[in-house]
Design a protein that fits this description.
Elements (H helix, E strand, L loop, with lengths): L8 E6 L1 H18 L5 E7 L3 H10 L4 E13 L2 E8 L9 E9 L3 H11 L5 E9 L12 E5 L5 E2 L15 E4 L1 H5 L1
Parallel strand pairs: 2-3, 2-5, 5-6, 6-7
Antiparallel strand pairs: 1-9, 3-4, 8-9
Bound molecules: inosinic acid and magnesium ion.
Magnesium ion (MG) binds next to loops.
Amino acid sequence: MDTRFPDACDRILLDSAALRSRVTELGCAITRDYEGQDLRLITVLKGGLYFLADLARAIDLPLAMDFLAVSPYFAGKGGVVRLTKDLSDDIGGASVLLVEDVVDTGLTVNYVLSLLRAHNPARLDVCTLLDKPARRIADVPISYCGFTMPDRFLVGYGLDLNGQYRNLPSIASLRDEAVLA
Ligand code: IMP
Ligand code: MG
């Protein structure tokens, strides 16, 4: 069990061994499915970075990586997402795999998929480490999912609270008091 466990956390839900073995399985499945294709892994900064770095090393194929950044802002009642960093490379005709840390309401992935689709990739799929279906608003197609999680606020392995806790090697739920603070 990991020794790093901040006071703000109440329980480790996925330790580093569980994450490692699931990432290896996902990497094997992607290796099988994308052989011979121009594979591009694209993630949304900053949360997806940790998963992307491990997943890329678990895929035994030539591939390239690229990054987007978005910032959520709230207009009226619905959450809206705005692009703050665009892709560096052309993805026209490529097999794009959008690698996400977590799909919660689905609004972010939905928005990013529409942006990517406009660049005419040959193939576009979603690989998310975590799926939190309880609060889904936008229906998003998920081709590869690491773990289905309960509706708790999670930190670690890329997931943050106000920029903190991303570097925890495991994924933990936060105490309610810490989320509300
Ligand atoms: P969405 O609600 O699916 O659009 O998710 C938007 C973003 O909220 C994700 O990319 C994460 O950055 C963040 N998010 C959702 N759930 C959690 C969580 O449990 N911990 C930390 N960040 C989260
Ligand atoms: Mg994110």
